[in-house]
Amino acid sequence: MAGALAAKRVALPRARRDEDKEARRRELLDAARALFEATSFAQVKMADVAARTGLAKGTVFLYFPTKEALFLALLDDLLTAWFAKLNGRLAEGGTWTGHQLACTVAQSLEGEETFTRLLALMQTVLEQNVTVEQTQAFKERVLGAMGTTAALLQERLPFLTARTAGQLITHVHALVTGLRQMADIAPVAREVLTLPHMAPLRVDFTAELTAAITTLLRGLQAR
Amino acid sequence: MAGALAAKRVALPRARRDEDKEARRRELLDAARALFEATSFAQVKMADVAARTGLAKGTVFLYFPTKEALFLALLDDLLTAWFAKLNGRLAEGGTWTGHQLACTVAQSLEGEETFTRLLALMQTVLEQNVTVEQTQAFKERVLGAMGTTAALLQERLPFLTARTAGQLITHVHALVTGLRQMADIAPVAREVLTLPHMAPLRVDFTAELTAAITTLLRGLQAR
DNA sequence: GGAGTTAAATGACCCCTGGTCACCGGTCAA
DNA sequence: TTGACCGGTGACCAGGGGTCATTTAACTCC
Lengths: 223, 223
Fold this sequence. Notes:
2 copies of one chain form a homodimer.
Chain A: H1 18-38, H2 46-53, H3 57-63, H4 67-90, H5 98-108, H6 113-121, H7 132-156, H8 162-183, H9 187-193, H10 205-221
Helix pairs in contact in A: 1-2, 1-4, 2-3, 4-5, 4-6, 4-7, 5-10, 6-8, 7-8, 8-10
The structure holds a DNA duplex.
């Protein structure tokens, strides 16, 4: 008679068709995103994600095998969307200055904190508890988008070679990850950084990213 | 009679003098470090740290209030040591080229993976569950070392201003954090990156860091 | 529209790990 | 000798990720 006194409630209609399942998957991703935006990866509980969509905790695990898989899927979506946005902007116009490109990249990341925060968690946290398949699918997508971006970069900035364009992307990725972490700090640290003499440790994500990319490009052009 | 059947064992002599406590603190840090080097932050268990030093789990919490505090203390040590090493090297010689500096910085980080891995965890993980006091003490130390480094940078590279030297440190910090994460990946991801066409996603920490810093400095000089 | 079948959803349960605390006992000053 | 102090202990607790036997909605076929 184990578990015989199960409560009687089925809140939501069952997702039987593939499109319904996909919709439910989306709901879960949206819930995870909203909770993550308000707190942090560690603070988001799978039970909360479930509650927010009106489902039971166990149901979440029907759609995502682990918490990390859920958030990696979220990152996957956000990354695809961001690359599409960036590549769209890179497609316009003829030849650009390095500073123009830096501004374009930095601007494309405005309001994309969720994306960059997750990006910073990718290797450290998200890929720790995930299947090979999901990791590969994710990286395959990154690779594709990166290829397009590299090609567009060479169009806009003729002084870039295939090699330097690829390197640039790597370095910008590193900068985005690193600067996001420095700018997006824990409440305790934020309190400490309020002190006047701590000013040198305060980081403005957009400003620093723009500056760094501009400098990198000037360096590449001066070669 | 709660907990009345406590086992009878006192493995290690008690640390009564301050220096003994300090030594025990060091042992705990060393144990944490060894375990972290073999695995990851999430995989290191406080019980393991205790076992490795021959202490009971509860004892660890007499020395460090939380797991994060333990690792932040470890980072504090490693960071101080690394800055000392770097500043020592920066003190030699007259005027350098940007490439020389880049090589010096990158070389000073060779074999310091533990340091850079922890650095990458700092804002995301370590400062999440730590007292204001510890955070402030840590940042105070960073600030001091950074000041010295900025001054030395301006000596070696005369084209740097106080402002650009500070910015350079920020950008290098971001690059170190970001590149370490990209280079030091989870086993699952490593497996995926073995595939030939994944080559563009493989990152050589030292090589990329050297390249990025060199480019940054060329950009600053070309201003 | 009733019987049978499939599989989505449930939630009690398991387990692991960070963190607590009442108790133990070695040491040393009085 | 003794009693207070305090470092150390480990059983215990809390809470969150993940499992699975069971329930039952929804669809199929007659």
